[in-house]
Write a structure and sequence with these properties.
The complex is a heterodimer of chains A (304) and B (245). Chain A has 304 residues and is of the alpha/beta class. Chain A folds into two domains: 2-212, Rossmann fold, CATH 3.40.50; 222-283, YebC, transcriptional regulation domain (Alpha-Beta Plaits). Chain A has helices at 42-49, 71-77, 93-101, 110-116, 132-143, 162-177, 189-195, 213-220, 261-271, 286-295, and strands at residues 2-13, 16-27, 31-35, 57-62, 78-81, 150-154, 181-186, 198-203, 206-211, 223-229, 245-249, 252-258, 280-283. In chain A, the strands form three sheets. A six-stranded mixed sheet of chain A has the order 5-6-7-3-8-9, sandwiched between helices. In chain A, strands 11-12-10-13 form a four-stranded antiparallel sheet, with no helix packed on it. In chain A, a hairpin with a 2-residue loop joins strand 11 (245-249) and strand 12 (252-258). Chain A is elongated and about 75 Å long. Helices cover 78% and strands 0% of the residues of chain B. Chain B has 245 residues and is mainly α. Chain B has one domain (2-42, 63-244). Chain B has helices at 2-16, 19-40, 53-83, 86-92, 97-125, 135-159, 163-180, 192-199, 202-214, 221-244. Classes of the chains: A alpha/beta (304), B mainly alpha (245). The interface between A and B is medium-sized, with 23 and 21 residues. The structure holds adenosine-5'-diphosphate and magnesium ion (MG). Magnesium ion binds at residues 42-43, 83, 154-155 of chain A.
Chain lengths: 304, 245
């Protein structure tokens, strides 16, 4: 079942084009990543989906409802953690949960949420006194207070130390395991690789790539890099089948080409009696793909 | 309804936990009033239009409490909510803007009334001050002054870029008004220049709206008109600002 549909979303703030034709679909039960650098238009996109901003153009559906015209129905059925949204410093943890759970009739009792998200020990503490990880757990608990079908998490792990980030990842998996669809906005690649079933890479308001993390790696960078040490001249490798380029500097050889290049280069070398001890093969990682995708100038003349 | 009650209760608790607000709403007016009682006593004096200074000041300090809640406590609270995204978070959970606004108005009114009550209780028990002569008119003046100052407080909270800015602007508005509006030295003792400045300060009208009927001079219709105008203008602007968010 499709839970979210975005078709041709556009949003402009004055003369800043924040979202410039974004389209994607999110299926029930998946963790869908929206990955992109700061200012890419991620927050704007998910805020439009939550009915917090009015799109300039495009068709949006959340749980088959238009979030612009059916704000209240949509918000009743979604959970939300907004970027840069905090609670009053002197509000206590239990007060926040009590308040937010009184908004909707659905959802578990807030005392259960305290236990589920391991907030029992800090129920009486003020928001200001919580650690980063405890705040994230509170935000997650608040996002789930109305038993939503979809949750939007916008930079949940921003500013957390690595240990707390790993714990936040576990929280996110736990949400999905409860059958809730998760839309995860982030600018961390490792987060997408670790958590997301599918991801949309957004830059300058446009979708640069869409698919599973694996598909992105395979489609964008099918080539591999083979490196080894050899002090003989091996320029002749360039004529081996599939090899695109050969570089040799000070005995370090770098050969680039698509997948089959690895056995073919190895065989050709062995045939000539060259058996390097340190041959290493590197495939592109999601990080390479990502950096490649967002490095492109977004508004080159051909784009217009 | 359940939500509204919770929200109001939480708002009230948050206010009471904010030391600056508590000090300016309860302690500051009381301490200054006690000093003024001690200095000027209870003998009718020409400087006070032949009223008793204790009545004169007790009535005037009703308006000081209003200004303290409206200009010091409320703007910082509202600006903090905006700055930290609390309003957006509530909106994302479908909490209507009017629910939050009405809870905040109610809590502010409650505080104003409590702060004023503390002063009246002190004035009547520990000192020899008296209750208003024209009671209904004094209450009316107090109510209109409260609403119009709260509207200004909301507007300030929504216009200030940050909570710190709201606090600075609020203090800057409060302190000179407190000194020159009739709550400091009696108006007749001010120089001509300062009297003219006082005529431009909203708090002067809030003071008169309460004090004139309190001392038995009847309603000050000019003051009520100025305050009503302020209520309409500031309330209208603040509402427009909230809608834009
Ligand atoms: N309320 C706003 N007013 C004006 N410009 C905005 C506003 N919100 C975001 N922007 C701009 O829109 C662009 C996209 O922002 P945003 O959606 O927050 O990106 P991201 O979440 O990917 O960092 C940025 O250039 C940002 O400066
Ligand atoms: Mg963002």
């Amino acid at each position: 079942m499709t839970v979210i549909e975005v078709d041709g979303l556009h949003k402009r703030y004055g003369n800043v084009l924040a979202v410039d034709d974004v389209s994607f679909r999110v299926e029930a039960g998946e963790i869908f990543g929206i990955l992109g650098p700061n200012g890419a238009g991620k927050t704007t996109t998910v805020e439009c989906l939550q009915g917090l901003r009015r799109p300039d153009a495009g068709r949006l559906r959340v749980l088959r409802l238009d979030p612009t015209t059916h704000q209240h129905e949509v918000r009743r059925r979604i959970g939300s953690q907004l970027q840069d949204s905090a609670l009053p410093d002197r509000l206590k943890v239990w007060e926040a949960l009590d308040l937010f759970s009184s908004i909707s009739r659905r959802g578990p009792a807030w005392r259960d949420l305290l236990a589920t998200w391991d907030l029992d020990g800090v129920a009486d503490r003020s928001f200001a006194s919580l650690s980063g990880g405890q705040r994230q757990r509170l935000f997650v608990a608040l996002a789930l207070v109305n038993d939503p079908e979809v949750v939007f998490l916008d930079e949940l792990t921003q500013g957390l130390d690595p240990g707390a980030r790993r714990m936040a990842w576990d929280l996110i998996r736990e949400i999905r395991d409860r059958g809730v669809t998760v839309v995860l906005v982030t600018h961390y690649m490792d987060e997408v690789e670790a958590l997301c079933d599918r991801v949309a890479v957004i830059d300058h308001g446009r979708v640069r790539a869409l698919g599973t993390p694996r598909q992105l790696v395979e489609s964008a960078h099918s080539e591999v890099t083979v490196t080894f040490t050899c002090h003989e001249d091996v320029a002749w490798l360039a004529s081996t089948r599939f090899v695109d380029t050969v570089h040799q500097t000070d005995g370090t050889v770098v050969v680039i080409g698509p997948g089959p290049v690895v056995p073919l280069v190895a065989a050709a070398l062995v045939e000539r009696g060259i058996v390097p001890e340190d041959m290493a093969v590197r495939r592109a990682s999601l990080e390479d793909v990502y950096l490649d995708l967002i490095d492109r100038p977004a508004y080159s003349p051909e784009d217009r | 309804m359940r939500l509204w009650v919770r929200l109001t209760w939480v708002e009230l608790k948050l206010f009471v936990r904010e030391p600056v607000s508590v000090v300016f709403t309860f302690a500051f007016p009381l301490v200054v009033l006690v000093v003024l009682f001690g200095v000027f006593g209870d003998r009718p004096s020409s400087a006070f239009g032949f009223a008793r200074p204790d009545d004169y000041y007790l009535a005037s300090y009703m308006a000081v409490v209003i200004a303290a809640v409206s200009l010091i406590a409320l703007p910082v609270h509202v600006a903090t909510y905006r700055e930290r995204g609390v309003m957006r978070r509530l909106r994302a959970s479908s909490v209507p803007a009017v629910t939050l606004l009405s809870a905040q108005v109610l809590v502010s009114l409650l505080l104003v009334a409590t702060g004023a009550g503390v002063l009246v209780a002190a004035g009547l028990t520990a000192y020899d001050a008296s209750l208003p002569v024209d009671r209904a008119d004094a209450v009316l003046g107090f109510a209109i002054a409260s609403l119009s100052f709260l509207a200004v407080g909301f507007l300030l909270g929504h216009l200030a870029r940050t909570a710190r800015a709201a606090q600075a602007i609020g203090m800057l508005a409060f302190l000179p008004m407190w000194l020159l509006s009739g709550a400091g030295p009696p108006e007749d003792l001010l120089s001509d220049g300062l009297q003219r400045v006082a005529e431009l300060l909203p708090l002067t009208y809030a003071v008169r709206a309460v004090r004139e009927p309190w001392l038995g001079h009847g309603s000050d219709t000019t003051a009520l008109a100025v305050l009503t105008l302020m209520l309409v203008a500031a309330g209208g602007l603040a509402t427009r600002r909230v809608r834009q968010l």
